[in-house]
Amino acid sequence: MTTEKNGFRVIVAGGGIAGLAMSHALQLANIDHVVLEAYGDVRSHVGASIGLWPNGIRVLEQMGCWKQIKSHCAPMVDSYNRLPNGKAISTSRLADMIKARHGYDFVVLERQLVVASLYDNLPDKSRILVNKRVANVTETSDGVRVDTEDGTTYEGDIVVGCDGVNSTVRDFMWAVANKAIPGYISAQEKRSLATTYACLIGFAPDMPGMGCGDCHTVHNDGFSFLVITQPRRTFFFVFIKLPKVIHWPTRPRFTAEDAEAEAAKLSDLPVSDTVLFGELWRKRIRGQLIALEEVVFDHWHFGRIAILGDSAHKLTINLAFGGNSALESTAALVNGLNRELKAYPNRKMSQETISRIFQEYQELRKPRMKRVLNLAYQLTRLQAWDGWFMKFVQRRVIPWVGDERVADHFADLVKGGIKLDYVPLPNPPLGTVAWDDDSAKETIANSSIGKSSNLFLWALGLILSLNASYYLVSVLRSQYTLQSL
Ligand SMILES: Cc1cc2nc3c(=O)[nH]c(=O)nc-3n(C[C@H](O)[C@H](O)[C@H](O)COP(=O)(O)OP(=O)(O)OC[C@H]3O[C@@H](n4cnc5c(N)ncnc54)[C@H](O)[C@@H]3O)c2cc1C
FAD-binding domain location, by residue (predicted)? Predict the structure, then answer.
């Protein structure tokens, strides 16, 4: 690494996907930083699978990780929609449609392999410090001080909380903000972190009869199965609606016994024509019950503190967009820092400039994340037949809209992906849909794919927004109830 700019130093809390991506982006921009990870090894984290969309893959390619990640994945082939009895009602080639539109595949692999690839490909691994749980964040007159549980102190210009949905940095940010401006972070904003669904996640070895590279969604009233097959791995998810919505600061935590009890209830239910869920659970290599929180917070920064990744935006996992979004948020924030440090290499960055860069990051990312949250929200409820309206839309409307137009709807989201603007993306594969940030708007010409009628997209959008409005009204009503208590 060449001389770092300006003495500017970033303290990153958390060494998950967001924290490791931050280290890549900062190293590529030649910005001094340290990543403080609570656990002893960033690569050994438990977890299930992760799906990567072309927007996330572009950033991973810029970070030099895509080749290694791709080597772990078999192409995705068929996507089946199934009734509760396991019978397929439709089959689509969604992965092919995604590739046709963007040039890159949609891939699924163990989350751990993505984390390992991010770590393995870091030019300077000494930036990542393990067994460093952040315990305290203090703003000083011209910087930040971060104390870790082992008694060490780190100083820098800014701190970025990549410490997940239960972020400690966010707690400090809220406290600092409300001390400086009473009421700045409202009770409503804090409790907007809500859990409506839990998910039984895990993976088993490959199961005869379930294919390789296939995706099976089994709809049931109030819950759904999702099973994705890859070589030697059958990833499973059961999305289960909780009896009531749980709001922050209550954090739903489930024990191994809770997971066993839920799995036992579902044991004899089919996940395909030939396989029952109990078979997957019995053969599982890993399995646990987790909460699926949902939120896009209003405030992503205050003073010298910013939050990024799941600490700022947390989605249900049906859309497979949380990790991809963390990569985009990383690119958005470091693009801003790099631009400023390049323009003024010898000037100490003032609080005003930091606030402006943080605000630009939030303004760029928050509207997109609200859109992503809404789509993930809809997908979870559609797949789990959450009420008659969702069941009607999933059974009658989506088949009428058709696979190509559903793929267009996703493409409309993917093409707005944000990548690092200071790192080249050599020879990206072309698809039929141009990226919003590609000034040449280069695509594969003369194809009807990705150019379906706006009317269909409009109709699909309308249906989903109607339901989103219903959701918004319910949330507002619950907030009104809170206020009137
Ligand atoms: C089962 C499952 C499946 C998923 N599937 C997909 C998918 O298919 N596609 C997709 O894009 N996304 C998926 N996601 C979401 C994705 O995994 C997350 O959005 C992503 O991992 C968020 O990364 P993060 O770094 O922000 O947070 P995390 O991954 O939660 O990382 C936070 C890190 O901070 C550390 N930490 C916490 N507190 C402290 C502290 N006080 N001090 C220091 N370090 C701390 C933690 O140990 C951890 O390493 C899935 C999530 C789950 C749970």
Answer: 9-171
Cis amide prior to 249 (ω within 30 degrees): yes
Could you report the predicted ipTM of this complex, rounded to two decimals?
A: 0.97
Q: For residues 245 and 469, what is the distance between their CA atoms, to the nearest angstrom?
A: 18
Phi, psi angle pair for 21, to nearest 5°: -65, -40
Domain ranges of the chain: 9-414
Q: Which CATH architecture has domain 9-414?
A: 3-Layer(bba) Sandwich (3.50)
pLDDT tens-digit series, residues 361-388: 999 999 999 999 999 999 999 999 999 9
Looking up tokens 């904003």 gives 189
Tokens of 127: 């930036």
Q: Is the CB of 169 under 6 A from ligand 1?
A: no
Give residue 17 CA to ligand 1 midpoint distance, Å.
Answer: 6
Q: What is the pLDDT of residues 278-313, one digit of tens each?
A: 999 999 999 999 999 999 999 999 999 999 999 999
> Does 287 sit in the ligand 1 pocket, CB within 6 Å?
no
Whether residue 450 has its Cβ less than 6 Å from ligand 1: no
Ligand 1 atom, smallest distance to 165 CA = 30
Q: Is 289 in the pocket of ligand 1 (CB under 6 A)?
A: no
**Residue 371 contacts by C-beta under 8 Å, 6 or more apart in sequence?**
413
Atom of ligand 1 nearest to the CA of 322: 19
